[in-house]
Write the structure tokens for this entry.
Amino acid sequence: MAKDGIRTYVLGYDTKNDPQLANALDRMAVAGDTGDKQHHAVEDEASVEKTLHDIAVSAVSCDYVLANAAMDPTHVLVKVDGMPINYGAADGWSLSADQRKITVHGSSCQKLQSGTDASLQVTVTCDVVPVY
């Protein structure tokens, strides 16, 4: 699946007492192409919920592909939770060389990855966007 771009996270229930199972799940986790070196061991409902939450948060990327190239970053307004963030700032955003991908940085990225209902809005305008 990793060859097809499908990243796979591996959870294992009650694997502490079964080294063979844990080893097999660890190999699957490495093959899952998520960066995990071992499976996520879970033992109860609470650990399953926490692990799934942690995986969901870690899977959120701060890179966003645009439908059309943004020819001039001074005409792009990027907001996180309704608050504008600045181009080129440590907690702002940057534009890829091909002008088709925005990367959100610093605390703005952390907010998107926090597991809360954070929102990202990108608008290309006719006017130059002010610096905030």
Summary: The beta strands are 11-13, 40-42, 63-65, 76-80, 83-85, 93-95, 101-104, 120-124.
